[in-house]
Structures are given as structure tokens and as C-alpha cells.
Design goal:
The protein has 249 residues and is α/β, with parallel strands linked by helices. The protein contains eleven helices and eight strands. Strand 1, helix 1 and strand 2 form a beta-alpha-beta unit. The radius of gyration is 17 Å and the shape is globular. Bound molecules: 2-phosphoglycolic acid. The site of 2-phosphoglycolic acid has 13 residues, from strand 8.
Length: 249
């Protein structure tokens, strides 16, 4: 069976005290589902979060990283730095990184390779913009994003890859893809992976949905056969809401 995963992407929210408070509240929540739970605080709070959650099953992950191991890259953080504070999973390719920080497929290939060479897990994000969907191009856009950044990899590398379909028009907008739209795209993604790597690998890979997932819509989205979890932004900043989503499985 594929892993169910619910990951909270805190984005640029929560200072140190707020991080500690939210983690304290997360620890108080009752988990009734089998989903793996992850949170992605800001870089400055990763070490503290890792320390606080040492004996807890919640995994602390990073929102981004640079592809170089070290060097003259002012303001950047490397895979080995992340690993040194206990982080083993990184989100790459988030649409905000692509849109505001000019992350191209070429840059993402380098980041993917760097993370894998450090034996890190990757939550790889992709998704179409509203104009793509209006033009009916969503499948082509998604297929290219996945192929361009991941399909140079050996099949073996995919044990460290989690896919996250995040239609840009649904991120932080309150507008969610319908459960059927999510299922259709997830099935298409699995078919795309099948065509290159075969059904066994494609059926083993977790595909998360992200974009305005809330306690009120999580159950229906997660009930779809090809939706294996969620990448949660806004609703991950409230412990009760986040766990209502975790427990929607
Ligand atoms: P949202 O963000 O849940 O606030 O829409 C999702 C994401 O950006 O990962």
C-alpha cells in the first residue's frame, strides 16, 4: 500500500516563539489516521523544531535548499546544512519558488540531484496556472514539469521522491480543485510515470494534492484512489485544523 502523507508547508510564517507554540499544540493533537505527518518551518527554526520533536513521529522538513554543497551563494542553505540539523526531506519546486525566485526546470534538476546525492527525500511540487487550465493545457504543463525535472533519474531514485500536484490557481486562494479534478490529474500523473518507469514504480509513488485543503474538504479529496495525501499551507498553521486534515484519512 502507498504511504499516506500530510505535510504542512508553513511558508514564511512563525518566528521562534510562534514555532514553539504551534509545535506544542501539534503535540497535543490526537492522531487517529495512518498518515505520516511532516511540518516545514522556516530555516531559522528548523533546529529548534527538530529538537522539540525528537521523540515524536512528526518529521521536520525544509521548504527549499540550494544545489551547491557550499560556497559563495549569499543567503542560501545547502543539503548538508539541512542534514546537520536533522532534516532529511526537502520540498522542491513549489510554485512560489518558481514564480518569485525564478526557479526553472534546469535549476530544479540540479536541486533534485543534490538532494538525492545526500540521500534526502524530496517532495517535488508542480502544477498548472489558471491560464493553462482555461486553455485545456494542464496535462501538457504537468507532464513537462515532471519529465524535465525528474525523468533523467534511475528508477531506484524514486524511492526518495514524493510528488505533489499543486494547481497554482488553488494555492492560498480558497479555491480548491474538485476531488474529481484532483483524481483525474493524479491518475494522469501516475500514467505518465508508468509510461517511463512501469506500473510497479508508478503504483508505489505517493502523490499529494495541495491547494486550499481545509478540514471541510480533506476527506472527500483524500477519498480519491490516486490521492495519497496533502501538502497544506494556510490550514497547517492551526494545530486543530492541521490534525483534522491528518485525520481525514
Ligand atoms: P494552501 O497552500 O493550502 O494555503 O493553498 C498550499 C501550498 O502552497 O503548499
Amino acid at each position: 500500500m502507498r504511504k499516506h502523507i500530510v505535510a504542512g508547508n508553513w511558508k514564511m510564517n512563525n518566528d521562534l516563539a510562534q514555532t514553539e507554540l504551534l509545535i506544542t499544540n501539534l503535540k497535543r493533537q490526537n492522531k487517529t489516521s495512518n498518515a505520516e505527518v511532516m511540518i516545514a518551518p522556516a530555516f531559522t527554526n528548523l533546529w529548534q523544531a527538530f529538537q522539540t520533536l525528537k521523540d515524536n513521529s512528526i518529521e521536520v522538513i525544509a521548504q527549499n535548499m540550494h544545489f551547491a554543497d557550499n560556497g559563495a551563494y549569499t543567503g542560501e542553505v545547502s543539503a548538508s546544512m539541512l542534514k546537520s540539523v536533522g532534516v532529511h526531506t526537502v520540498i522542491l519546486g513549489h510554485s512560489e519558488r518558481r514564480a518569485y525566485f525564478n526557479e526553472t526546470d534546469e535549476i530544479l534538476v540540479q536541486k533534485v540531484n543534490a538532494a538525492l546525492s545526500h540521500n534526502m527525500r524530496i517532495i517535488f511540487c508542480f502544477g498548472e496556472e489558471l491560464s493553462d487550465r482555461k486553455a485545456g493545457n494542464q496535462e501538457t504543463v504537468v507532464e513537462n514539469q515532471i519529465k524535465n525535472a525528474l525523468f533523467h533519474l534511475d528508477a531506484n531514485a524514486f524511492k526518495n521522491i514524493i510528488l505533489a500536484y499543486e494547481p497554482v490557481w488553488a494555492i492560498g486562494t480558497g479555491e480548491t480543485a474538485s476531488p474529481e479534478q484532483a483524481q483525474d490529474m493524479h491518475a494522469f500523473i501516475r500514467k505518465t510515470v508508468t509510461n517511463t518507469y512501469g506500473p510497479e514504480l508508478a503504483n508505489s509513488i505517493s502523490i499529494l494534492y495541495g491547494g486550499s485543503v481545509k478540514p471541510g474538504n480533506a476527506k472527500e479529496i483524500f477519498s480519491k484512489p490516486d490521492v495519497d495525501g496533502g501538502l497544506i499551507g494556510g490550514a497547517s498553521l492551526k494545530a486543530e485544523d492541521f490534525y483534522a486534515i491528518v485525520n481525514a484519512f
